[in-house]
Amino acid sequence: MQLSLSVRIAEEFLSKEKASMSLDELALLAVRCGYQALCMRASQVGVHSDPELIEKAASCMVANGLSVSMITGDFDTVYNNDKGPKSLENITPYLELAEKLEAPRIRVALKNDSDILNAQRAADEAAERNIELVHQCHTLSLFETVESIESTLKAINRPNFGLVYEPANLEICNQDYGFSTLERLSKWIFNVYLQNQIINAKGSVTLPTRCNGDISFDLISIHTSGGIDYENVFSGLKSIGYEGSITVHQSTQPGETPEESAKGTADFLRGLIN
User: Fold this and answer.
1) Residue 197 maps to which CATH number?
2) Other CB atoms within 10 Å distance of the CB of residue 267
3) CA 272 → CA 77, 109, 250, 267, distances in Å?
4) pLDDT tens, 135-188?
5) Phi and psi at residue 237, in whole multiples of 5°?
6) Is the dihedral of CA 88, 90, 93, 98 positive or negative?
C-alpha cells in the first residue's frame, strides 16, 4: 500500500478553497513524513488553473519524487454540491489535467440516477486515455449506503469507474464499514480515503444525510483513538488483497501543526500496514 497525503491537510474542514501552504511546502512536508504521493485538489491546482501553474505543479511532483494519487479538479466536486455532476458532462479538461499531473484517477460526483448516463460517457472517454473515474463514499449522493453504492456501480458498469472507500462517511450514514462491506465492494475499490471522527449528538459538526437524517460528530486526528476502528479497516483491506493508495484525507485538527498531523498519522498507518 502507498501512503498518499491529501492537500486537504492545508485546508479548513468547511472552507476548502484557500490553502494555508504552498504546493512546494506541502511536497516537502510529505517527503519528510514518509508519504509517496499527494492527492491533488482544486485548492492547489484544478481545471480553473493557469497552464503555467499546472506545469509548475507537475514539476514540483517530479522534483520531490512524489506521484499524484488522484485529482479533484473543481470546487463543486469538493463541496459535493448540486453542480458537482457537471464535470461528467465535459470530462475532457479534467482528463487533460490528470495527464499533465500523471494522475491515474479523477474524483467525480453523482447526485441522482439521471447522472449515470453521463458517468458512463465520461468513463468511456477516460478509458481512451487509460484514466479511472472514482466516487467517494459520501453523504447526499448516490454513494451514501452500501446498497446504493453497489447498485450504482453496477448500473454504470464500466471497468474504469470505481470507488474511493471511505469509512467515516459510511459511519455517518450508519453503514457497516468493516470486512463484509470491503468484501462486497472489493472489485470497485480503486482508492482509500481516511479521516476520523466521534459520533456525538452534541458534536461541533453536523452534516445532513439522505438515509440517516442530520448527524453530529466531533473531528479527531486519524491517529487518535476512540473513532473509526482502523485496525478492523486495515485487517479488511489486507483480507481483500488491496494494494493501492491509502490517502490521508483530513484537515489539520486544533492543537496540531500540519506537519505534526501528517507525521503522526503516517507513523500510525505504517504500523497498521506492516
Assistant:
1) 3.20.20.150
2) 12
3) 30, 30, 18, 9
4) 999 999 999 999 999 999 999 999 999 999 999 999 999 999 999 999 999 999
5) -60, -40
6) positive
Q: Are 140 and 208 in contact (CB under 8 A)?
A: yes
Residue 51 sits at φ, ψ, to 5 deg, of: -55, -35
What is the C-alpha to C-alpha distance for residues 148 and 155, in angstroms, rounded to an integer? 10
CA distances from 144 to 129, 206, 229 (A): 29, 16, 19
Look-up of cell digits 458512463:
120
pLDDT at 12 over 90: no
C-alpha cell, 218 = 466531533
Sheet of 197-199, strand order: 197-199, 213-219, 205-209
Answer yes or no: are the C-beta atoms of 128 and 82 closer than 8 Å: no
Closest CA to 139 of 39, 239, 208, 66: 208
The number of folded domains in the chain is 1
Q: Does the pLDDT value for residue 13 go beyond 90?
A: no
- Residue 69 near residue 2 (C-beta atoms within 8 A): yes
pLDDT digits (tens, 9 = 90+) for 23-32: 999 999 999 9
Other C-beta atoms lying within 10 Å of the C-beta of residue 234: 19
- The single residue listed with the C-alpha cell 472552507 is 15
Range of the domain at 214: 2-273
